[in-house]
Amino acid sequence: MVSPRYLCHRHDIEDGEAKGFTFGSGDSRWEIFVVREGEALFGYVNSCPHIGTPLDWVPDQFMSADGSYILCATHGALFEVETGHCISGPCAGSNLKPVALRVDDEGAVHLSAPDPADSEAH
Ligand code: FES
């Protein structure tokens, strides 16, 4: 059995901030990001539902100025941290694709499946 893919420790992400992760390269490149709110973590595919661009222009800059929402830097869409639901912008009403995470007792954060493509939460 292949163990789930390790991403980082919970405390490698500042409270209220996010961190991006890239897998593979070329056509098989696959990006996700993880947002931390207190001790809670939320993972999403780094692809805006508007036109599919990554949300961060500057690496790991995924949050709105006040830190309350996930922000797409391309056209300013805002997404709820807990749900990935878009509440403002050109893709309002749509959702980021969630990625299932697993956090162990020591705070190590893993994808819940070894292959990122298998880890999308449903
Ligand atoms: S690409 Fe994200 S709002 Fe347009």
> How many β-strand stretches?
10
The secondary-structure element order is EEEEEEEEEE
- How many separate helices? 0
Shape: globular
> What would CATH call the class?
Mainly Beta
Helicity level: under 10%
Hetero groups: FE2/S2 (inorganic) cluster
Topology:
Elements: E1 6-9, E2 18-23, E3 30-37, E4 40-45, E5 69-71, E6 78-80, E7 86-88, E8 98-99, E9 101-103, E10 108-111
Antiparallel strand pairs: 1-10, 2-3, 3-4, 4-8, 5-6, 6-7, 9-10
Protein name: Nitrite reductase/ring-hydroxylating ferredoxin subunit
InterPro entries: Rieske_2Fe-2S, Rieske_2Fe-2S_sf
Organism: Limibacillus halophilus
Describe the protein's architecture and organization.
By secondary structure, the chain is mostly beta strands. The protein has a single domain (6-118), classed as 3-layer Sandwich (Rieske Iron-sulfur Protein). The protein is globular. The model has no long low-confidence stretch (mean pLDDT 92). Helices cover 0% and strands 34% of the residues. The strands form 3 sheets. The chain has a 4-stranded antiparallel sheet, with no helix packed on it. A 3-stranded antiparallel sheet has the order 1-10-9, with no helix packed on it. FE2/S2 (inorganic) cluster (FES) binds at residues 48, 50-51, 53, 72, 74-75, 77, 89-91.
